[in-house]
Design a protein that fits this description.
Layout lengths: L1 H10 L5 H28 L2 H13 L9
Length: 68
């Protein structure tokens, strides 16, 4: 997904490689920040519920890039 999104940002949106990379850098940074709280949450709640909620949130990631 990252490779295709990088191409989309560069070709369709006209961003240079550095700007596209900075946009794509946000996701792993957020993942690093949210991993410890997600781990604590999965200790309290059944892990499949936490994983299902995470997958549901992830499915909305490409929505801002859809044509209006």
């Amino acid at each position: 997904m990252g490779y295709i999104l990088s191409l989309y940002l560069q070709v369709a949106r006209g961003l240079d490689a550095q700007a596209a990379g900075m946009i794509l850098l946000v996701q792993p940074v957020v993942q690093v920040l949210l991993s410890p709280p997600a781990g604590h949450l999965s200790d309290r709640i059944e892990p499949r519920v936490v994983a299902s909620a995470g997958m549901a949130l992830t499915s909305f990631r490409p929505v801002p890039f859809l044509p209006v």
